[in-house]
């Protein structure tokens, strides 16, 4: 143990952090489903139950699946980078589709109930997060999965992509917290201060969402957990840069 490199010793804890994040993420989705299903009347695509599709889809798409998409570069450390990129983009696409369903549900519900659209801080933050998420996904496809940009431009954009990826997770969790508070005040304003079971459940959901975001953020930002460089991929990158920018490689 004393002779073990620090990074190797630290890597032993990575599966525990990843497993913890999955337990937290699944718990968030399940609790959201129970809250909307048991306390708020279930799920349907018409009537008052249509709104309940919204929080479930947003927690599943823009928090849980989005967080998992962020984690793939730490979980799949030895697979080819191309495969990990495809999985990363695919998880984002699934999260996007689910989120669109959630947005359509809430807009349809507001229209049917004659409720104004986009008037609350929750809706503003949520829509900003969604728009930035689409932009981030499209830029990621253009720069990395189907790279049209030069290696120099990709190298410049990569830190921004990583930063905004984590920022969007924070914004997603924050928007959910605003939505939870708004829903509780609309639905159980009179009984909420008396620690009703629905209020306690929703507050627990909020704490679990924060914990999920913290664990994912910790795993992604910890240097020991970074994906190790692959010599073969590095060589291909050098040759791609040579072809795209006309540079002469220092080695074959």
Task: List key phrases describing it.
mainly alpha, Four Helix Bundle (Hemerythrin (Met), subunit A), globular, disordered C terminus
Rg over CA atoms: 21 Å
Helices, by number, come to: 8
The major pleated sheet works out as: none
Q: How is the quaternary structure best described?
A: single chain
- The helix-and-strand class reads mainly alpha
DSSP strand tally:
0
Mean pLDDT score: 89
CATH class: Mainly Alpha
How much helicity do the residues have?
over 70%
The outline comes out as globular
- End-to-end span in angstroms? 39 Å
Q: Architecture, according to CATH? A: Up-down Bundle
- The fraction of residues in strands falls at under 5%
Which residues sit in consecutive blocks of at least 5 with pLDDT less than 50? 235-252
Number of domains: 1
Order of helices and strands: HHHHHHHH
Structure notes:
This protein has 252 residues and is mainly α. The protein has a single domain (12-226), classed as Four Helix Bundle (Hemerythrin (Met), subunit A) (Up-down Bundle). The protein is 75% helix and 0% strand. The chain is built from eight helices and no strands. Mean pLDDT is 89; it is low at 235-252.
Task: Write a short abstract of this structure.
It contains eight helices and no strands. It has 252 residues and is mainly alpha-helical. Helix 5 (121-145) packs antiparallel against helix 6 and helix 6 (151-188) packs antiparallel against helix 7 (197-221).
Q: What is the fold's blueprint, element by element?
A:
Elements: H1 6-11, H2 14-39, H3 53-75, H4 81-112, H5 121-145, H6 151-188, H7 197-221, H8 231-245
Helix pairs in contact: 2-3, 2-7, 3-4, 3-6, 3-7, 4-5, 5-6, 6-7
